[in-house]
Design goal:
With about 180 residues, the protein is α+β, with helices and mostly antiparallel strands. The protein contains six helices and nine strands.
Length: about 180
């Protein structure tokens, strides 16, 4: 039943590697922005073409999405950190009156891969850094000066795979590493 449609399926899969319907588009696809687009998000619906500023604005609550940048010929791996995103923690999405002056690079392990994210912790004294991470559903690797965290959804996936398929931590980790960078 599928065989007559296989060429269409392959064309659509290959289409994702290029610019698709956006061949003539040169500006960011955000309505009020007139900057040239540079990047796209693989995890946002429709993979819109955005300038780095709009990309960061759109991902203040999605800091571990996978993004790519156009190099003139094809899309290549990019990151929200490279685009300039810095996530402010504390105060449940409200503005922090006393953010730390410097940001911290944090390695975040997620079901979509392993990401490096810039975070700025709250310095108001309302919650220690590890609690600020727990509040955004990131499990810190240490309580003192955390530099690595794993998302709770990744912990839940590992738990389910361990119970159902007897997945071990070594194979799970290497699977996430392969999703992050398939070159090994």
């Amino acid at each position: 039943e599928w065989l007559p449609f296989r060429d269409t399926y392959m064309d659509e899969l290959v289409r994702h590697d290029g610019r698709g319907d956006f061949m003539g588009v040169t500006e960011c696809t955000v309505a009020a922005c007139e900057s040239p687009w540079t990047s796209r998000c693989l995890d946002c619906f429709g993979s819109p073409l955005l300038c780095d500023h709009c990309l960061c604005e759109a991902h203040t609550r999605q800091p571990i999405h996978r993004v790519q940048t156009w190099n003139g010929r094809h899309f290549e791996k990019h990151s929200l950190l490279d685009a300039g995103l810095c996530l402010q923690l504390g105060h449940d999405d409200r503005t922090c009156p006393n953010p730390r002056q410097s940001s911290t690079k944090l390695t975040v392990v997620d079901t979509s891969g392993i990401h490096t994210v810039a975070v700025r912790f709250c310095d108001c004294g309302t919650a220690p850094t590890y609690v600020q991470l727990l509040r955004v559903r990131w499990w810190p690797a240490t309580m003192k000066r955390p530099r690595t965290a794993i998302t709770l959804r990744t912990c839940e996936l590992f738990h389910a795979l361990t119970l159902q398929g007897k997945m071990n931590a070594y194979d799970f980790w290497h699977g996430l590493a392969r999703i992050t960078d398939g070159t090994g």
